[in-house]
Amino acid sequence: MMMPTLATAQPGALEKLIFGPKLPASEPAAMADGLFMMITWFSVFFFVVLMGLMFYFMIKYRRREGVPTEPSPHHNTLLEIFWTVVPSSSLLVMFVLGFQGYTQQIVSPSDAMEVRIEGNKWNWIATYPNGANSPEFQPLSKRVVESADGMSSSTIKGRDYPIFYLPENTSVKFRMNSQDVIHSFWIPEFRVKRDVIPNRYTTYGIKTPRLTAADTYTHQDTGEEMLGRDMWVFCAEYCGDEHSRMAATLRIVPQDYFNQLMEDWGVTGLPWEEGEKIYKMMCASCHLIDGGKLVGPPWNESSDANGQYGWGYPASLASGGTVERDANYYRESILDPNAKIVKGYAPQMQSYQGQLDEDDINNIIAYIQTLSEVPPNPHLEGEGGESESEAGNQAEEAAGSES
Amino acid sequence: MSTLDAHAGHHEEGSYLSGPPGIMAKIWQWATTVDHKKIGVMYLFAVLFMFFVGGMAALLVRYELIDPMRDVMVQTVDANGDLVETTATQGENLKDLFQGLGMAGDLTGTQIYNRAFTLHGAVMVFMFIVPSIPASLGNFFLPVMLGAKDVAFPRLNLLSWYIYLFGSTFGILSILMGGVDTGWTFYTPYSTTTDADHWRVVLMVTAAFILGFSSILTGLNFVVTVHKLRAPGMGWFDMPLFIWAVYATSIIQVLATPVIGITLLLLIFERIMNIGIFDPAMGGDPVLYQHFFWFYSHPVVYVMILPAMGIISELLAVHARKHIFGYRAIAFSSLGIAGVSFLVWGHHIFTAMGELAAVLFSGLTFLVAIPTAIKVFNWIATLYKGSIVLNTPMCYGLMFLFTFSIGGLTGLPLATLATDLHLHDSYFVVAHFHYVMMGGTVIAFLGGIHHWWPKMFGKMYSEPGALIGMALVFIGFNVTFFTQFFLGTQGMPRRYANYVDEFQFLHQISTYGSWILGLGMFVHLAVFIHSLVAGEKAPANPWGGLTLEWECESPPIEHNFHHEPIVKHGPYDFETTVPPHWDPKDYPIHPDAGKATH
Amino acid sequence: MSTMTDTNPTDVPQSILKSPKHWRNRIAGHHWRTGDEEFDAAKLGMWLFLTTEVLLFAGIFCGYAVFRMMYPEAWANGSHYLDWRFGAANTAVLLLSSWTAANAVRCAQLDKQFWLRVNIIITIVCAALFIFIKLKFEYMVKLGEGKAPGTFFSYPYAQDPHEPLWWSLYYIGTGIHAAHVIIGAALFGVVLYYAKRYQAYGPTQYTLVENAALYWHLVDLVWIFLFPLLYLIH
Ligand code: HEA
Ligand code: HEA
Ligand code: CUA
Ligand SMILES: [Cu+2]
Fold it and tell me: Whose CA is nearest to atom 38 of ligand 2?
C-alpha cells in the first residue's frame, strides 16, 4: 500500500472537494487531512476491489435456467488468513498515525498564549491574557437577497456574533469551561474540537498560521480590506434551542495589529458602553434590542401580543398581573430570573449570580435604559453621566460614582 | 423427572393466520396469542409503523435544512440602501409549516427542529431499529428455522410484546405532549436542566427504560431457545447463519441493556430529585453519564447490524443457490463482534476524555472492524460460481454489501483519533451512521421482508413494483447521505437548525434525495398492501431455500410442522440437495457435486 | 419461566387436577419434548436473567468507585455516618434467609411439603425484617437528621461539600437493593400460595422454587458487596 506523505502538501483537487474552501490552518491540521486522505484511499481500494468482484460475479454467474451451479470450495484457509492479516496490519498503521496526530493536536508548548474560552447558552466568550474581551461583533451572513418585485433588496441581518482576534504564527492554548451545559469548541480549519464542560477545565492548543498576502477580510464596520484570515467557530455539542447559532468568528491578524487591539480593549468605557459589551457577549443570544422575540424578551421599548417591553414599561407576568420595570426588577431578573417570568416566555434563563459583579449589573441596567425613551432617557440628550438620577435608581448612582 | 408426551392432543390444523370467525374473537385471539408467529407479525407491523413515524420526522428534518435561515431579522432596504422595514422572520421552514397547520404554539423554528430530530432519533433507535429484525423476523423464523414449535418461553414472549407496546406508549405520549429536545442521547446536564420539558423528558427516558426490558426478555428467550430447542440432528454448526447472528445479538441484548436500565433510572432520579450524580454543580460527573450511556449504546449498534448480517447470509446463499463460503468464519465473527463490542464505547467521547483512555478505545475500535471485514470478504466469495438471480431480496442483499461497506469504512476515520477530533459531531458522523443503520440494517430488513413475505403471509408480492421501489431507495438513499460526508468534512456540525450559507448547496441535494427515498418507501408500502389484498398465492418454497422454514406450508400451520423435522442436510447444501417442495427435474445438480474440497 | 402457567389445564383430566399432589401431574408446554428439558431451559433463563441483574448493580458499583476516587474525603465521612451494627444485623438476616431458601428447594426435592412451607415463611419473614431494620433504624433516622440525597441534603454538620453525593449513592444502591428484596419476597409469596393450595412442588417439579431461590441468592450476594463497601471501608 502506498503511504502518502503527511507533510503540508498543496491540496489536490480531491482534497478541495472533500474539505471545501476550508484549507487546513496548521501543521497538525494538515497532517490530519493527510491521514484522512490515506484512510480514504485505503477504503476506496477495498471498496473498488470488493464491488468490482461483486458486479463481476453478478454478471458472470447470473442464473441460467437448467444450468447447475458448479462445485466450489467451502473455504480456503490460506485466503482467509490473508484477508484477515492484511487489513489488520493496515488498521494498525492507521491507529498509530492517528494516535501521533492526536497528541500533536491536543498539546501546546508551555510558552503558548493562554486564552480563556467560556461557553454559555449560547455564547462564546474569549478572555485574553490581559483580561480584555473582544468588543467586535458581526452578523453571520452578509448575504443580500433580491426581493421579488426587483425594486428593493433586502439584507438578512440579525444578532451579532463575536469576533475573536489571534495573532499570526503563535501558539495558543485554549483553557475552556462552561457555565451551564456541555458545549464543544470547534474551529474546522484547525481540524480539532474539544468539549467544554461545566465545573472542569478542558484545553487544547493550536498554532496559528502565517498570513500570506492573499489572506484578507473585509472589516465589518469600516468595510476596509485588511490583512487577516477569518474562520468560523462552531459549537459542536448539542446545547439547546440556539445551539445552531452558538457561533463566533476567529480572525487571525498580524502581530502588531493584535497588540494594538489588546491595548485598545484594555480601556474601560462609559457604563452603558460597558453594559452593551456584556450584552453582546452574554445576553444577545436570547435578547434582541430591536423588538424581535428570541428565547427571551426584547430589551428595547416595543410591544407584542404579550404586552410591552423595555425600561419603564410594565411587564406582564406569566403568573398574571404586571410589575413595574425598574432597576430593582432588572436586578432581580438578572440574579434570580425565575422569580418573575415574563408572559409568553419559558423559564430558560439561568441566574447570573456570581458571574456578573455589581458593576456589571449596573452597567447592563444603564445600557437597558438607553434602549427606551420612557422615562426620558438622560443619556440620549446629555451624552454623559451628569444627569440627575431618579429616585431608587441604583444603576444611575453607580454609574455616576464610577465615571 | 418423567418424560411427558408433548404431542398429546395433536389435531389437524390450518394456517396460523386462520382464526375464529368474528372480528372481536379474532382480535382477542391475536391479543392473547402465545404463538411466536403471530407475535412476530404484530411486531412487524408495529416496527414498520414506528419506522413510518420516524421517517416522517426525518423528512421534516430534511425539509427544514433546505435553506440556512441563519438569522432572525430581515431588514428591507430600498434602492438607495435606506432602511425601509425591519421584520422578524418567522422564517424557519418548520415553523411556517406548523403554523400553516395551526399547531406551532409558542415554539420557535429551532425549537421545533430540535424536537423533530430528537423524535426522529429516539423513535428510530429505541422503537424501530433495536426491536426491528430480532423481534419481528427473528420471532417468526428463529423457532421455525430451528425446527421448533415455539420459542422457549412463549408467555414471556407475549409479555415482552406488551412491554414494547407499553414503553412505546410512553414515548408517543411524550411526543404528543410536545416532544423532547435533548437528542436521542439524553446527555446530561442538558437533559436534566432543560426546563421546558420537565415531564416530557422523564416520559421519554422512561419509555427507553421500559423498552429495554422488552429487549432483554426477547434476547433471553432467544438464547434459551437456541440452546434447548434445536431439532434432532441440528448441531451448532448446522444452524442457519441467521440464527447465529440472532444468537449473538441476543447475548449483547442481555448483557448490555441492564446498564442502560440503571443509567436511565439514575437520569430519572436526577431529573426528578436532583440527586446530583451527573450534575457538575453538585460535584457529579456529566461525562460519567456518557460512559454509561455508550457502554450500552455502542453494543446496541451491533444489536442493530448483526441480525441484518444474518439476513444477508441467507439472502446471498439462497438467491445465488450457493453454499456459504467460510460458514464457521462468519458464525464466529458474529460472536467476535459481540464480544469486542463491549470494549469500544469510548470512541463516542474522544473529545471529552483523557488522552490515555482515548488511545485505548481507539485501538480497540479497530479490532471490531476485523471480524466485520471477514464477513464481507466471505459474502463476496459466496457469490463466486453461484447461480445468481436478481430479484428484489437479492438486489437488497447486494445493495447491503455496497452501502454497508461505505458505512463501515467511514467508521475508520472516526475510530482514528487525529481525524475524529475534526469529524466528531459533524455531518460526517450523521452520514456514517445512516449508511450503517439505514444502508445496513434497514436495507437488509427490507430484503428480509421480501424474502420471507411469501412464507409469512402466503402471498407473492409484485416483483416489478418492488424492483422499482428498490431502485428509488438505492438512488434516493445515496443522494441523501453521500452528500453529508462532504458536509461533515467541510465543517457542518450536526443538530443544527440553521447553518452558514456555504453549506446550502449540499444540504439542498441531500433534501431532494430524501424525497426520492421517501417515494421509494411508499412504493414498497403500496406493493405490500397490494400483495396482502390481491397477491398471488405463494408456493411453499418460492426461492428453493434449504432451511427448515421452507419445509413448512406458506403460511405455516399453527405448530409450524406436521411432524417434528429431522435435519439431514446443512442449511446451504444447494449443490447436493434438492430443496423441499421442489421437483428434482427443476433443480439440476452438477455431476461433480459433493466432490469439491471441504 | 413459571412452571405452573405452562400447564395447559384443558389437556388434563379433571380428576387429576383435583388430586392433592399436583406436582405429579405436571405437563410440559406443548413445544417441549420432555419436562426435563423444560426445567433446564427455565433454569438457564433464570441464570441469564440474574446476569442482567448483576450488570444492573454493576452500574451502581461503578458510580461508587468513580466518586470514591474523586472524593475520598466525602466517602470516608459517609461510611462513618453509617452504623455497621445495623448493616451486620441485616447481613445476618439475609444470610439466614438464603439458607432457608436453599432448604426450601431441598424440601421440595424430598417432597417434605410442611417444611417447604416453613422454610419459605422464614425467608419471607427475614425479608420483612430486613426492610424493617433498613427503614426504621436507618432510612428514617438518617432522613430525620437531614442526611438526604442530593439537593434534599440538609445535615448541618457535614464536613465535606460532596457528602450529598455519597448519600445519593447510598440511597440509590440500597434502595434498588431493597426493591429487589421486596420483589423476591413477593415471588416467594407466590410459591407459598401454590405450595399450600396445590402442593404444586415436589421431586419432579420444583422449577419455580428453584428459580425463586436463585433470585434470592442474588439479592443476598448483592448485599454482601454493598455491606462492606458502604459500611466498612473508610
Ligand atoms: C448499525 C449501526 C452501526 C454500525 C454497524 C457501526 C459500525 C462502526 N462504527 Fe459507528 N456509529 C453508529 C452506528 C453504527 N456504527 C451510530 C448510531 C453512531 C453515532 C451515534 C450518535 O452519536 O448519535 C456511530 C458513531 C461512531 C463513532 C463515533 C463518532 C463520533 O461521534 O465522533 C465511531 C468512532 O470510532 C464509529 C466507528 C465505527 C466502526 C469502526 C464500526 C465498524 O464496526 C465498521 C466495520 C465495517 C467495515 C470496516 C466495512 C466493511 C468491510 C469491508 C468493506 C472490508 C474491507 C475493510 C477493511 C479491510 C477494514 N461509529
Ligand atoms: C434506524 C435508524 C435511522 C434511520 C432509518 C434514519 C433514516 C433517516 N434519517 Fe436519521 N437519524 C437517526 C437514525 C435513523 N435515521 C439517528 C439516531 C439520528 C441522530 C439523532 C440525534 O442527533 O439525536 C438521526 C439524525 C438524522 C439527521 C441529522 C439531524 C441533525 O443532526 O440535525 C438527518 C438529517 O438529514 C436525518 C435524516 C434521515 C433521513 C432522510 C432518513 C430516511 O432514510 C428516512 C426514510 C424513511 C421514510 C421516508 C419512511 C417511509 C416509511 C413508510 C412509508 C412506512 C412503511 C414502509 C414499508 C412497509 C417499507 N437523520
Ligand atoms: Cu453550545 Cu451547542
Ligand atoms: Cu460506537
Answer: B58
Q: Residue C7: name the closest of B26, B4, B40, B144 by CA.
A: B4
Cβ contacts (< 8 Å) between C169 and chain B: which residues? 277
Nearest C-alpha neighbor of B7 from the set C37, C33, C35? C33
Searching chain A, which residue's CA lies closest to the CA of residue B352? A195
Strand locations in B143-254, DSSP E? none
Look at residue B394 and tell me whether its pLDDT is greater than 90.
yes
Domain ranges of chain A: 4-60+77-106, 113-145+153-266, 271-402
pLDDT: is A382 or C172 the higher one? C172
* Local structure of C143: helix, strand or coil: helix
Mean pLDDT, chain B, rounded, equals 88
Q: How far is CA C184 from the centre of its chain?
A: 4
Right CATH number for A271-402 from 3.20.20.70, 3.30.450.40, 1.10.760.10, 1.10.357.10?
Answer: 1.10.760.10
Instruction: Please give the model's pTM, rounded to 2 decimal places.
Output: 0.89
Task: Please report residues of C whose CB lies closer than 8 A to that of B227.
Answer: 41, 44
Which residue has cell 453525593? C165
Distance in angstroms (rounded) separating the CA atoms of residues B317 and B332: 18
Tell me if B133 sits within 8 A of B313, measured CB to CB. no
Contact B412 A236 (CB under 8 A): no
Beta bridge partners of A315: A323
Between B136-150, B424-438, C129-143, the lowest mean confidence (pLDDT) is in C129-143
Residue among B61, B67, B71 with most chain A CBs within 10 A, to mutate: B71
pLDDT confidence tier of residue A390, bands split at 50, 70 and 90: very low
> What domains appear along chain B, each with residue ranges and CATH number?
23-67+90-597 (1.20.210.10)
Question: Which triple of cell numbers denotes residue B445?
Answer: 430488513
Domain A113-145+153-266: CATH architecture, name and number where available: Sandwich (2.60)
Q: What is the pLDDT of residue A112?
A: 86
Class of domain C46-232: mainly alpha
